[in-house]
Amino acid sequence: MQKQENKYIRGLFKEIWNAELIVSGIIIYGLFLINSESDYFVDKVGAITGNILLVTFFKFLVGVFFVLLFNFIIHLLLRAYWIGVVGLNSTYQEGIKFERLNYTDSYIKKNKKKYNSLETYSAKLDDLCSQLFSFSFLVFLICISFIIIVFTPLIILQLFDSELTIIRIIYYLYLVLSGVFFIDLFSGGFFRKFKYLYFVYRPIYSFYSLISLEFIYRPIYLTFIS
Question: Staple partner for 46: which of 51, 55, 86, 218, CB 3.0–4.6 Å?
Fold first, then answer.
């Protein structure tokens, strides 16, 4: 049973680049659309809420999306380069024949160590592509969490009388606690490192983890910070 699982996982690893290319393409297309409509969206948020901090936050978020767009494009280009190297390796299985190049010994020694075989080089490229994709996807999901957490109270305020004191108190308490949640997230889980502090923080973490969908990307997040 264990051997079958390992074989299945190895098979997935061989085909995972296909999924990466598809997902990267979809996200790049989506980010292009977001960036093209970002100014209109930010102006609309400002007109509806009149909240300068919220507008500033969304401008920052648009900047993050632009960086993500750049990352996913780089990933796509690296994957294309990796495919080329893999194809080259299948054609020239002996790799680079340094002895035929008639270069200096120091140059050959340096590059022979670095590019010992195309197979090893392609494996390193594959790892780099997967890491870049995972990190970019993680940042993308964290941005989605931001959006969910910010928009949830705005929707609630539209449903209830936002002038009521109790609603205002709940709203500001929600924002403060969400700030605590994101401080913990970006600090690598600072509040989860201390037993008694986590005892107090645990309900907050559980609540915001649920509504922000943090539990979806938690394995990726924990892998990167561990």
Answer: 55
Task: Note whether 134 and 177 are same-domain residues.
Answer: no
155 falls within a domain: no
Would you say the pTM of this structure is higher than 0.90? no
Last residue of some domain: 87, 111, 140? 140
Q: Mark whether 78 and 20 lie in a shared domain.
A: yes
Its domain, for residue 214, covers: 160-226
Q: Which of 50-64, 140-154, 190-204 has the highest mean pLDDT?
A: 190-204
Burial class (CB in 10 A: 0-12, 13-18, 19+), 75: buried
- Distance CA(136)–CA(138), nearest Å, equals 5
Tell me if residue 164 falls in helix, strand or coil: coil
Q: Give the number of domains in the chain.
A: 2
Quickly state the pLDDT bin for 51 (edges 50, 70, 90): low
C-alpha to C-alpha distances, 187 to 134, 179, 181, 184, 225, nearest whole angstrom: 19, 12, 10, 5, 10
| Among the listed residues 222, 215, 180, 185, the one whose alpha carbon sits nearest the alpha carbon of residue 201 | 180
- The lowest-confidence range among 19-23, 107-111, 146-150 is 19-23
